[in-house]
Amino acid sequence: MNPDLQRVIALQRLDSAAADAQRRLAEEPERLKAIDARLETARQHVADAKARLAENQTVRRNLEKDVAVQQGRLSKYRDQLMAVKTNVEYQAMQKEIGFAQAEVKGIEDKVLERMLEGDELAAAVKRAETELAAEQKSTDADRRALAGDVEALRTSLEKNRTERAELVRGIDPQVLATYDLVSRRRNGIGVAEARDGICTICHVRLRPQVFNNIRRNDSIIQCDSCQRILYFVPAAAAQTPDRVGQSTS
Ligand SMILES: [Zn+2]
Asked: Which residues pair with 195 in a beta bridge?
């Protein structure tokens, strides 16, 4: 194969790998944000659960104050009951006491409901806190993995730059200029495989004479349509030829 052609193919491999690494590096901030968001969601769940528990406790305390007020009324009625003179007054007072007792009972039922609900809410806080602790661990691990990825990508880019500089020194300047120009104009891809008579990237059919020349891989030939430098991959030597007449049963 033409040495320059071989080198631009290798150059393309390096440049594609570098572009891929750059793309992945560019995604890192988004990935970090997603990790932070997971932790923030878990924190928010704890805060929400705590707020619901606090609300429950406030309501319960207010109900307990109401019970105390009603019980104060009741004992006042009972004192008054001792002092009544007539049967009518006595019955009226009994009625008041009955109302107040029903009131106390109703509020006490509500207190009980709130207590049961409070137990559930306290358990929910515990659960949310456990989940937060797990999320903290998992996001810490993910952040470390992410930092490791970034480190690896930077190292590979560094290595890529060194290899590229070395490779480029050996390429004919004219060929390199052609590659760089096409690569810049064609989304970072300056080299394309020609297969079955077509450019495999822009899919344009090549003139038969041009394709025949490309098959030889001994010169720099550009696609008429996309201008990429074309090369040909011969059918693998290991490919099994048709074995006519052999039984394979
Ligand atoms: Zn093409």
From this structure: 198
Predicted pLDDT at 245: 43
The alpha carbon of 238 and the centre of ligand 1 are apart by a number of angstroms equal to 28
In the prediction, which pLDDT does 237 show?
A: 52
What pTM was computed for the model? 0.73
What is the DSSP-derived secondary structure letter of residue 204?
P
Asked if 223 contacts 199 with a C-beta cutoff of 8 angstroms, the reply is yes
Please state the length of the chain. Answer: 249
Amino acid sitting at position 88: V
Q: Output the six-digit token pair for 41.
A: 């969601």
Distance 185 CA to ligand 1 centre (A): 13
The lowest-confidence range among 35-39, 78-82, 109-113 is 78-82
Neighbours of ion ligand 1 (CB under 5 A): 199, 202, 223, 225-226
Per the listing, tokens 């003139």 go with: 207
